[in-house]
């Protein structure tokens, strides 16, 4: 029977079994180092179970705030599909989607455990110390442990994962911190919290074609997730066929041209598009490596072109010499 709106729906890449499970529940937006620590702990518990156990991540999508107060939810760092893939890569065996209906969010902590968790045959539930669940977030990890004792599962609490940033501050790995860093254009620090480059993915769409008239053709990418703050960035761009190309990326409203719409515009360095390739409608994925500069309004097109020459040269230099440890293998290969 297909899952109903308030039942967990399996990610299509997962394989469901009747084996007992080690569970972790959350939004997991971004799948940062803290989320990965939960999966790693769950995997360690599952491996110790003599009869075999699967690691199951139950991911709310969209965020519960979308149902409780539409419009108040934070911008998304990942689509559900990317989030599921990242959780599977981190070691989860299954990723189940929890649609945050008012009915589901209105369950008491006891009802949430009995209706959502217990049917998955949990051996243990792994969460962070600030985990809350049930109507009005009435349940915490203490509540969960108490309910687990009477229902035959344990609760394992994983402490915060701390990350060193470029300015020597140390912060806990949280999705809110990633968003804060992205708002300020600190993409390298966002990558440190994520444990990999922050990525945007979307489809190339038609723009106003101004870039090609000044010698800097760009691909305008329509994205579903959070773009970093306005500015120019050095990125690695991955094409549909897997080819990775260095790129200079502008995020913002293009003040020199009196732009009003915020855009993500990609200039692929040294890339000559084959004449048979479609001009629009192809997918592009961007891995953000470094912020090059603020967005600036220039007094003339010539001044803009001179700056773009410098941007391209600097992006090529950064991408040719920078190999941060947190970057994904497929990006740095």
Stretches where pLDDT is under 50 for at least 5 consecutive residues are 1-16, 328-333
Structural class: alpha/beta
Instruction: Please trace the helix and strand order, writing H or E for each element.
Output: EEHEHHEHHEHEEEHHEHEEEEEHH
Secondary structure: number of strands: 14
Q: What's the Cα radius of gyration?
A: 22 Å
The overall pLDDT average reads: 88
SS summary, helix count = 11
Q: Which shape, going by the Cα principal axes? A: elongated
Helical fraction equals: 25-40%
Instruction: Please report which band the strand proportion falls in: under 5%, 5-15%, 15-25%, 25-35%, 35-45% or over 45%.
Output: 15-25%
What topology, given as strand order, has the largest sheet? 1-4-3-2-5-6
Q: In oligomeric terms, what are we looking at? A: single chain
Give the N-to-C terminal Cα separation.
Answer: 43 Å
Biggest sheet character:
6 strands, mixed
Protein described:
- The longest helix is centred in the C-terminal third of the chain and has 21 residues, at 301-321.
- The chain has eleven helices and 14 strands.
- It is of the alpha/beta class and 333 residues long.
- The chain is elongated.
- Mean pLDDT is 88; it is low at 1-16 and 328-333.
């Amino acid at each position: 029977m297909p899952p109903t709106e308030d039942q967990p729906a399996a990610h299509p890449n997962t394989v469901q079994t009747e084996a007992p499970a080690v569970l972790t529940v959350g939004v997991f937006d971004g799948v940062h180092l803290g989320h990965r620590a939960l999966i790693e702990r769950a995997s360690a518990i599952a491996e110790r179970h003599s009869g075999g156990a699967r690691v199951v991540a139950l991911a709310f999508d969209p965020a519960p705030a979308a149902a409780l107060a539409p419009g108040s939810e934070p911008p998304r760092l990942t689509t559900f599909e990317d989030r599921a893939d990242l959780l599977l890569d981190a070691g989860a065996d299954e990723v189940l989607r929890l649609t945050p209906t008012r009915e589901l969010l209105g369950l008491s902590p006891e009802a949430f455990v009995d209706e959502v968790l217990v049917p998955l045959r949990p051996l243990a539930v792994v969460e962070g110390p600030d985990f809350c669940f049930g109507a009005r977030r009435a349940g915490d990890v203490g509540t969960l442990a108490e309910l687990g004792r009477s229902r035959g599962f344990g609760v394992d609490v994983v402490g915060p994962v701390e990350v060193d940033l470029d300015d020597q501050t140390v912060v806990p790995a949280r999705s809110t911190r990633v968003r804060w860093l992205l708002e300020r254009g600190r993409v390298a620090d966002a990558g440190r919290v994520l444990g990999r480059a922050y990525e945007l993915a979307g489809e190339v769409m038609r723009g106003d074609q101004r870039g090609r008239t000044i010698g800097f053709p760009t691909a305008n990418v329509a994205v579903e997730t959070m773009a970093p703050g306005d500015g120019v960035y050095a990125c690695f761009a991955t094409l549909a066929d897997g080819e990775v190309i260095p790129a200079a990326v502008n995020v913002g409203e293009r003040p020199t041209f009196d732009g009003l719409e915020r855009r993500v515009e990609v200039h692929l360095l040294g890339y000559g598009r084959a004449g048979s390739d479609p001009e629009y409608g192809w997918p592009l994925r961007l891995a953000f490596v470094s912020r090059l500069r603020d967005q600036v309004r220039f007094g003339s097109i010539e001044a803009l072109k001179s700056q773009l020459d410098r941007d391209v040269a600097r992006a090529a230099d950064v991408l040719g010499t920078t190999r941060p440890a947190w970057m994904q293998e497929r990006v740095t290969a």
